[in-house]
Design a protein that fits this description.
Length: 224
């Protein structure tokens, strides 16, 4: 399965990505997570990306494209991958097509998660993430069992620097200005499928897996 998840910040891409990655046994590649790991580790890439991330702007295409090309060249992407947060601009989508056509493995499908703006702002400002393992919570919809503590690993829950209401509005503006254009790009290529992303996480997961069923292929060595 070679899959892209599209949708505004807070649409639930990361939440569903974990489940899809597990169901199809493919790596989840989140460009936002890669940037945050680089910021945390104080790398040159992290330093470069941080100034854009802090104000809700997109990191320049050339930086992101190089990073994704390196990541897709790794062995674990041999059976497919799930991209969360990439591509976000038409040049990024074109670059992805080029990388995949060199490998002779085009995308199977692009899923777009559909949610109203007010709902995504609420989701983002109430999002908390584990500083240790990255698990995602929501203060109302998906709270941890113990306040401020990750259920999975006991790590501390924090708010992302860019999850304030002001930065979220800027990220939404970037989405409308640059990423929404990708919808047409993928409709024209017959790859876009919509998933209604409102409702309980399990219901969205069920709809997502249903949408993917038509794109399932046997893995190498399976089936005929
Ligand atoms: P994205 O990766 O698209 O930015 P996340 O998966 O991190 O979004 O989800 C954003 C926030 O919304 C998180 O706090 C998450 O717990 C919450 N969330 C995700 N899916 C749902 C849902 N179906 N209903 C309510 N809250 C959700
Ligand atoms: P996310 O975790 O997907 O919400 O991304 C957080 C931030 O990382 C974004 O607001 C951007 O600053 C940066 N970022 C992540 N992915 C990309 C991308 N594909 N292109 C440009 N910037 C990105």
């Amino acid at each position: 399965m070679r899959l892209v998840l599209l949708g505004p910040p807070g649409a639930g891409k990361g939440t569903q990505a974990t489940q899809i990655g597990r169901a199809y046994d493919v790596p989840v590649i989140s460009t936002g997570d890669i940037f945050r790991a680089n910021v945390k580790n104080g790398t040159a890439l992290g330093e470069e990306a941080k100034s854009f991330m802090d104000r809700g702007a997109l990191v320049p295409d050339d930086i992101v494209i190089r990073m994704v090309e390196d990541r897709l060249a790794q062995d674990d992407c041999g059976h497919g991958f799930l991209l969360d947060g990439f591509p976000r601009t038409v040049p990024q989508a074109e670059a992805l097509d080029e990388i995949l056509s060199k490998q002779g493995c085009p995308l199977d499908v692009v899923l777009r998660f559909d949610v109203a703006v007010d709902e995504v702002v609420n989701r983002v400002v109430n999002r908390r993430v584990c500083a240790n393992c990255g698990a995602v919570y929501h203060l109302q919809y998906a709270p941890p069992a113990v306040d401020g503590v990750c259920d999975a690993c006991g790590g501390p829950l924090i708010q992302r620097d860019d999850d304030t209401e002001q930065v979220v509005r800027a990220r939404m503006d970037e989405y409308r200005a640059k990423t929404e254009k990708l919808e047409r790009y993928y409709v024209e290529r017959g790859l876009l499928r919509d998933v209604e992303a409102v409702g309980a996480v399990e219901d969205v997961a069920r709809r997502t897996l249903e949408a993917l069923r038509e794109f399932e292929r046997p893995r190498d060595g399976e089936g005929s």
